[in-house]
Structure formats: C-alpha cells, structure tokens
Amino acid sequence: MRRQIVLALVGALVLATLAIGYGVYAVARQPTPVAAADALSLAGPRIMFRSTAPDSKGHLAFVAKDNPGGPRSVSALNCLRVYAAGGTGTCLRQDGALATFQIAILDENLNVQKAIPLVGVPNRTRVSGDGRLVAWTVFVAGDSYNHGRFSTRSGLIDLSTEDMIDSLEFLSVTVDGHPYTAPDLNFWGITFAADDNHFYATMSTAGRRYLVEGDIAAKSVRTIARNVECPSLSPDGKRIAFKSAIDDNPAKGWRLTVLDLASGTRTPLAETRSIDDQAAWLDPNTIGYAVPHGPADSDIWSVPADGSGTPHLLIPQAESPAALS
Question: Residue 87's domain is classified under what CATH number?
Fold first, then answer.
C-alpha cells in the first residue's frame, strides 16, 4: 500500500505541471486511428481502466472485453484510480492544487456530475451495481496513535439522496459480537451488496485486520472474518475476493484468495505473486487485478476465481480495472 501512496503523490506533482487538453483519442502499443467522441461511454461490454502507457499515463481508458489486449480508447480524464458500474463512474484525481484531491463522479457519458473534496491521498474506489452508491478510500498522516505511519479513511455517498458518510469511523462497531470502540480504527476497500444498504470493507484495530459487513441504514459495522483486506464482492453476492496476508503478516506479502460467505471456505487463487490491490470481478468466474513492474507502470492480469488455471496477462500497461456489462 505504501507504493500506491508514493505513486499518488508523485503523480499529483507531475499532473500539476501538465496542460491536459480536451478531446478523445485512441492508443495502443502502436499508433491507432482517433476514436470517435461518442464511442466513449460507460456502455459495455468493455473494460474500463487507468492507463499506465507512456503516451496516455493516468488517463481513464477502455478496451473491448473480447479483445482486451487490442487498441484502447482513451478519454481526457486524468485519474489516480477509477471504477464504474450501473452507468456511474468514479475518477480519483488531483483537484487542481498541489496535494489536494477529489473524487469526480461521472455520468454514463463521462461528464463530471459531482466532485467531492478528499482529505488525503486517494487509493481505492467502488460503485454499487446500480450506480447509486459510491465509495472511496484515502491515506492520511498525522494520527497520534499511529506514530508517523499512514492511516486510512473510507467514506461513501448515496447519490439518490446525497446522504454521505464522511468516514466509517463514525459508525458503531461490533467485534466478535461485542460493542467495540478504539482510537486506532482504520477502514479501507469498500465493496457494495446489491440491496443499496449493505457493504463490506476491511477494518483494522489492535494489529488485526477484519472483514466487516456494514449496514448503512443502521449506521453500523460488524466483523465477520479475520485477515481479509481489500474485499471485492462477486456479482452473485456470495463470494469475496480479497488479499490475504501471508501467515497473517502483511510484511510477508499477500495471496489473492476467495472467501465463500456462507461456508467460510477460503480458496487461494493460482496467482502466487504478492498482489497489493483491490481486485475486481471481470465476470462471475474471473478476477482482474494490477501487477506493478517498475516504479510507475502496471499490467492488468486475470485469474480464475475457483483456484484453478494460471494467471493471464489481460491488458498491458494498465491498472484499476472495472468490467462494464
């Protein structure tokens, strides 16, 4: 996670020096024809992502779902992290001044409908399946309990009502069935259920990391499993893809794993490299995630969600995937 902090800060400084032109163009490994402006929307079947290619670094981009390694269409939006579902997109980005950021909420044609200032360096974002709920996570520094290390804050908004939870820290917390309060609560990696009320996230406290289930209406979260980070709920709502700290120690790296919510069964996936990402479900059977190579470049890989198969390079020079149906 520290790599994302450094890259986000470096990216913000770089973006502040660039003049970002308006318009739409297409790029791939080799030059490709200019894409028509009306071709860029949140309509599927495509995969949306953040480009890390040199000629489009940081831009929100798209590829055809049936040809993910082929030509990409690139928008003028410059983002640190992206996601989309249900006709709503998100772009975590610099808001024009150094070291200040926002989440830009996009309509289906990539127009910015709302921008919410963020306190901290943005790192994760998710949208509910119907596009109604939007979530974000940022890194912050300066919490007295954390002795100079980074902390996290996660918030969400209901776009239909404008109701916002600035930080999950304001919710009531139950740990192992008991009410719990502590100054060191950290939340990150929200993922939404289909009912527009429940969600899942990671919560850390007292050196432990939990999967929590949240209830927006009740303004509460409860722990349901340990050693679960950056959860991603499957399309059927029955499984959670996540990164599991090896030997319950993040210093040893993470293994992509899928948790069956009903049985509690954990299935390690065929990807054995340490993956520090909030994976995304590309379809009911496939997980997508970013693998970095070099200080500011990544590729999107995919792997079967049942533990079988082998990892597959899906989109070169890309990260932060979202499957559009």
Answer: 2.120.10.30
Q: Is the pTM of this model over 0.90?
A: no
Identify the helix (H) or strand (E) that includes residue 22: none
Q: What is the pLDDT of residues 217-243, one digit of tens each?
A: 999 999 999 999 999 999 999 999 999
Q: Identify the domain containing residue 309 by its residue range.
A: 2-324
Instruction: Tell me the C-alpha distance between 188 and 172, whole Å.
Output: 16
What sign results for the dihedral spanned by CA atoms 36, 38, 42, 43?
negative
* Residue 301: exposure state from Cβ atoms within 10 A (0-12, 13-18, ≥19): buried
Angle, CA 92 vertex, CA 91 and CA 94 arms, to 5°: 115
Triad 82, 291, 14: Cα angle to 5°: 55
87 neighbors 75 (Cβ within 8 angstroms): no
Domain count across the chain: 1
Which pairing describes strands 220-226 and 172-175: parallel, antiparallel, or unpaired?
parallel
